[in-house]
Amino acid sequence: MAAGQWEFTMTTAGASHTASHCISAAEANSVNGDSKTARDYAEKKANGHCTIKSYDVHGNTLSYSLVCGDRSIESTATFHGDTSEAVLKTTTADGKAVTTSVKARRLGACP
Hints:
- Helix content is 18%, strand content 59%.
- By secondary structure, the protein is an alpha+beta fold.
- The chain has a 7-stranded antiparallel sheet.
- The two termini are 18 Å apart.
């Protein structure tokens, strides 16, 4: 993953939402490194709001699972330089599962 302004398009049950986010060099380096470095960074960013159950980086693929309150989240993302795609599965305490696909692309430098 490269630092810069990224656009994320999230699609759940046929409805899409697009948002952008400036990825810092530290954020990009966290997923470009090894699993321990990435997990340490993610735990710091979670700031106690979520508990990370697993976090693995293998080549250009990032997989993780975490628990945030009454929700559990599992995700696998694959990076291709300036683009990525991911699948996010969120499960609530009552067992309801929602799957979201995420497509992202780097737009350039952060504003």
